[in-house]
Write a structure and sequence with these properties.
The complex is a heterodimer.
Chain A: H1 2-8, H2 16-51, H3 53-60, H4 65-91, H5 94-124, H6 140-174, H7 183-207
Chain B: H1 6-12, H2 29-33, H3 38-66, H4 77-113, H5 121-143, H6 157-161, H7 166-193, H8 206-238, H9 251-285, H10 292-305, H11 321-349, H12 358-381, H13 383-389, H14 393-423, H15 429-455, H16 470-500
Helix pairs in contact in B: 3-4, 3-5, 3-16, 4-7, 4-8, 4-9, 4-14, 5-7, 7-8, 8-9, 8-10, 9-11, 9-12, 9-14, 10-11, 11-12, 12-14, 12-15, 14-15, 15-16
The chains are: A mainly alpha, B mainly alpha.
The complex binds copper (II) ion.
């Protein structure tokens, strides 16, 4: 393992423990920043929901709850796999780590594909708030303006997460990145954030108006 | 003048160093463009910022030229909109926000805490590339015809009506924001985890503290700006209604989100300047900084309260009067920590053994201009007066006193102070003092008349104006000539000093920080012997005595424990 530690150690650190601490500290700060990015959008949602309660409730009934719920389950499971993968990497369990990361990639891709089908269905049902928008309630256009913006931004974050996890898995599989590298835990923290954002979006976009 | 001069320091520290400095350790273009050395990245940033300073400055020159006469004769009203938007966008996001943190901060932060580099050296380089990418986007927006929304991107104008490159500019600002966040994360992690043995939190030099506070604000405020601008992009590019009042949206929501970032952004610009001045003043007064602990808490208070006052930009927007009163009150409260800092600098001077070398002249100029900028901020924070001067030149003068008279003056002061450390050469002191004095007067002539004309009712953002204001505009434009000279002059003599300047010792100003305990310029890894810290910062004289006035005090470097 000492060769492994040496390979994972980077400038300007003297110890891997300290380096890992810094990487996790750094990513927590970054997650705080990301949280505020989505907080800005959630604030916009909250304000408009207060201004147009009826329109938002009516719109919430129009989103596809099946796609939404299945995707929530997919994403939660992927977070579990990510947690297993990152801990397995830290423990040096190569096979388990790589399998778990592969599961993450698979589930993440599943989410995006399902999301794509859902968007296609939304477009068919004329839920794009442009010309020919189907709903007439005041505020419905705003709901769907935010729906498209927030789900798109979330999907972008997920795609970014997929790229990072894919890259790390490839490096881990090829052996160019030692499993002791803090990058696995960093990627896991980011993945969980993307998950948490979805957990906030799900009730706002799919459950509102359905109670 | 009884102060120390660089010559004395030279005599004490003969320069025969073995080994390469960071400047000569590697050569070739790739060694710069792919460097992860925080000192080289600082210079990359400095080069890019200089270019943007010229672009934004050129726009300012054209603005002052246009305003020389009451008629709009040089540019059309439309062209004028694009000019001041260009000036604002470039100066705020591509010059002032990164000015001190990414150049001096990048260079000095690891040195001041005794580290080999920043916590994430590759992220540091990456943030520079993000910055350059954003800069190219912005330049594209400008070359394709510019932007006419003002730097504030107010909706519904920006989303529904503006016929200019709003999208490119907004994306450029989002991207440069990510570069800011990367820098902030890096600096926070560095201060938390890379301090040298013995460098406790309350032994940190105040520049480190102020960059720490700045980094916090960068990380927590910038994403909200990104959210606001992404919503503008969604509405403008994809027709997704968010702020559009015709579809039930609320344009004021944009203003809230925008100012939630853009008021704290003022502190991103001015906090690092506080740090620079807090380093210079004790050194040239040969005094410990007065009230170190209060200075630290003041920085943190400002960083925190900065998030709670954004509504003072919206007093006339129609927001609730009660909200305005709360924001007004909090804006008065935030003046307290700023005033503490001004008083503490003044007390540091009291009975100090002051020498008026160039960095000190800049620092003193900063204190004067910042104080005036801060006090007029109080005038603006009071709701009834604000009604009177909203959107006038009074506001323009106020924020230029803070951001230009304050932040840019401090940047120049810091540049002169650390020039010997960065380059190994002394700036020519005579020229430097002349430039510092010229900058103070040039600045005052340019911007003080704006207080007067603003109070008399001259509105901002107009290319033409009633003739009764011409005398003030002519004064301002004439002052701008002096100011431009004062900004250009140091670029000339500092470049000259690279070749012909006297070589600097390790510690030419007899200052105390760890950065002076290594060679000038420092080696690639900053310190040949890793420093150990056993003392607080600013040990310019024994704790319970003031400095004696006849001879220069022996001082102890902060890393004296090694
Ligand atoms: Cu403000």
């Amino acid at each position: 393992m000492s060769g492994d530690v040496a390979a994972a150690l980077r400038e300007p650190w003297d110890s891997l423990r300290r380096q890992r601490e810094a990487a996790e500290f750094g990513v927590w700060i970054f997650l705080g920043s990301e949280a505020l990015l989505f907080a800005g959008l959630l604030l916009a949602f909250a304000v408009n929901r207060t201004l147009h309660p009826a329109g938002f409730a009516a719109s919430g009934r129009e989103t596809d709850i099946v796609f939404g719920t299945v995707n929530t389950l997919v994403l939660l499971t992927s977070s579990l796999a990510m947690a297993v993968g990152s801990e397995a990497a830290r423990a040096g369990l190569r096979r388990l780590a790589l399998r778990a990361l592969a599961t993450v990639l698979l589930l993440g891709l599943t989410f995006l594909v399902l999301k794509g089908f859902e968007w296609a269905k939304d477009l068919r049902e004329q839920l794009w708030p442009g010309a020919g928008f189907r709903l007439a309630e005041p505020g419905a256009r705003l709901f769907f303006g935010l729906y498209w913006t927030m789900t798109a931004l979330h999907a972008l974050h997920l795609a970014g997460g997929l790229a990072v996890v894919g890259w790390l898995s490839w490096q881990g599989w090829r052996g160019t990145r030692p499993l002791g590298s803090p990058a696995f835990q960093v990627a896991a923290l980011y993945w969980h954030l993307v998950d948490v954002v979805w957990i906030l979006l799900y009730p706002l976009l799919y459950l509102g108006g359905r109670a | 003048m009884s102060g120390i001069t660089a010559d004395d320091a030279m005599a004490e520290a003969p320069q025969e160093r073995q080994g390469d400095s960071y400047l000569t350790a590697e050569t070739g273009l790739a060694s710069w463009l792919l460097t992860t050395d925080h000192k080289r990245v600082a210079l990359l940033y400095a080069a890019a910022l200089t270019a943007f300073f010229f672009i934004g400055g050129a726009a300012a020159v054209l603005i002052r030229l246009e305003l020389f006469t009451p008629a709009s004769d040089l540019v059309s009203a439309e062209g004028y909109n694009r000019l001041f938007t260009l000036h604002g966008l470039v100066m705020v996001w591509f010059f002032l926000v990164p000015a001190i943190p990414n150049t001096l901060g990048n260079f000095l932060l690891p040195l001041m805490i005794g580290a080999r580099d920043l916590a994430f050296p590759r992220l540091n380089l990456f943030s520079w590339y993000l910055f350059m990418g954003a800069g190219l986007l912005l330049l594209a927006a400008l070359l394709l015809g510019g932007v006419d929304t003002g730097w504030t991107f107010y909706t519904p104008f920006s989303t529904g009506y503006a016929h200019s490159n709003v999208l490119l500019a907004a994306l450029a600002v989002v991207l440069v924001g990510f570069s800011s966040v990367a820098t902030g994360v890096n600096m926070l992690a560095t201060v938390h985890l890379l301090r040298a043995p013995g460098m406790g939190w309350f032994r940190l030099p105040l520049l480190v503290w102020s960059i720490y506070g700045t980094a916090l604000v960068m990380v927590l405020a910038t994403p909200v700006l990104a959210a606001a601008l992404l919503l503008v992009v969604a509405e403008r590019a994809f027709g997704l209604p968010i702020f559009d009042p015709r579809q039930g949206g609320d344009p004021l929501l944009f203003q809230h989100l925008f100012w939630f970032y853009s008021h704290p952004a003022v502190y991103i610009m001015i906090l690092p300047a506080f740090g620079v001045v807090s380093e210079i003043v004790p050194c040239f007064a040969r005094r410990r900084i007065f009230g170190y602990t209060f200075m630290v808490y003041a920085i943190l208070m400002i960083a925190l309260l900065g998030f709670l006052v954004w509504g003072h930009h919206m007093f006339v927007s129609g927001q609730s009067l009660y909200a305005s009163l709360v924001f007004s009150f909090l804006s008065f409260v935030i003046a307290v920590p700023s005033a503490i800092k001004v008083f503490n600098w003044s007390f540091t001077l009291y009975r100090g053994q002051i020498s008026f070398q160039a960095p000190m002249l800049y620092a003193l100029g900063f204190i004067g201009l910042f104080t005036l900028g801060g006090l007029t901020g109080l005038v603006l924070a009071s709701v009834p007066v604000n009604r009177h001067v909203t959107d006038t030149y009074y506001v323009v003068a106020h924020f230029h006193f803070i951001m230009v008279g304050g932040a840019v003056t401090a940047l120049y002061g810091g540049l002169h102070f650390w020039w010997p450390k960065i380059t190994g050469r002394m700036p020519p002191d005579g020229w430097a003092r002349f430039a510092a004095v010229l900058m103070f007067f040039g600045f005052s002539f340019t911007f003080f008349p704006m207080f007067v004309m603003g109070f008399l009712g001259m509105p901002r953002r107009y290319a033409s104006y009633p003739p009764e204001f011409q005398v003030w505009h002519v004064l301002a434009s004439a002052g701008a000539v002096l100011l431009a000279a004062a900004y250009l002059l140091p670029m000339g003599y500092l470049a000259w000093s690279l070749v012909r300047g006297r070589r600097a010792g390790d510690d030419p100003w007899n200052a105390t920080g760890l950065e002076w305990r290594t060679a000038s310029p420092p080696p690639r890894d900053n310190f040949r012997v890793p420093p150990i810290v056993e003392e607080a910062a600013y040990l310019y004289h024994p704790r319970h005595e003031g400095p004696r006035h006849e001879e220069q005090e022996p001082h102890r470097d902060q890393g004296g424990g090694t």
